[in-house]
Design a protein that fits this description.
170 residues, mainly alpha, Protein Binding, DinI Protein, Chain A, 3-stranded parallel beta sheet, 3 strands, 6% strand
Length: 170
């Protein structure tokens, strides 16, 4: 009698767990593709491009000044117009300028990364919020990121791209 009762309880629990698993909804989205289609992303990319061009212009100016000084030094050295102490002094100045150019190149990379972060973060947050809203409204158990290659199989999931686009107005 006890064993029949145990089997009945196990069967009841199995049915309940199968029902809850089958009721789960899964979806997927390629958020990178979504962000590329956002008008705000195009604007951010344009701002970054303009910012980068300005930084690059300053770097090119620094290189041109360095090259002019180097050519002047080389000409004076070849003509014998400089003694050893003056040559060492000029070489030290040129070495310092070359280090300044290298430091500026590293600074440019940092500044560009900060600019990207400041412009992209609000867009990423906007997409995350929209995905969470669609997930709650659509009663999805899980939403997978299909753009990263993490998704192995998506036959039974819904692509929520259109729903998220509607949430963010594109």
């Amino acid at each position: 009698m006890k064993s029949i009762l145990n089997y009945a309880i196990i069967a009841l629990l199995s049915v309940a767990s199968i029902t809850s698993v089958s009721a789960q909804k899964f979806a997927h989205i390629n958020s990178q593709l979504l962000m590329v289609e956002m008008p705000e992303m195009k604007s951010a990319d344009s701002q970054i491009q303009t910012y980068q061009e300005g930084l690059m212009k300053k770097g090119q100016d620094m290189v041109q000044v360095f090259e002019a000084k180097y050519l002047a030094y080389a000409e004076q050295a070849n003509k014998g117009e400089l003694n050893k102490i003056e040559m060492q002094q000029k070489e030290g100045e040129l070495g310092k300028e070359q280090q300044d150019i290298q430091a500026y190149e590293q600074e440019v990379q940092t500044l560009l990364a900060q600019k990207r972060q400041s412009l992209y973060k609000p867009l990423i947050d906007k997409v995350k919020v929209a995905i969470e809203q669609v997930g709650k409204e659509g009663d999805y158990t899980m939403i997978f990121e299909s753009g990263s290659g993490v998704l192995v199989h998506a036959a039974e999931s819904d692509d929520i791209m259109a729903l998220v686009k509607a949430k963010i107005g594109i």
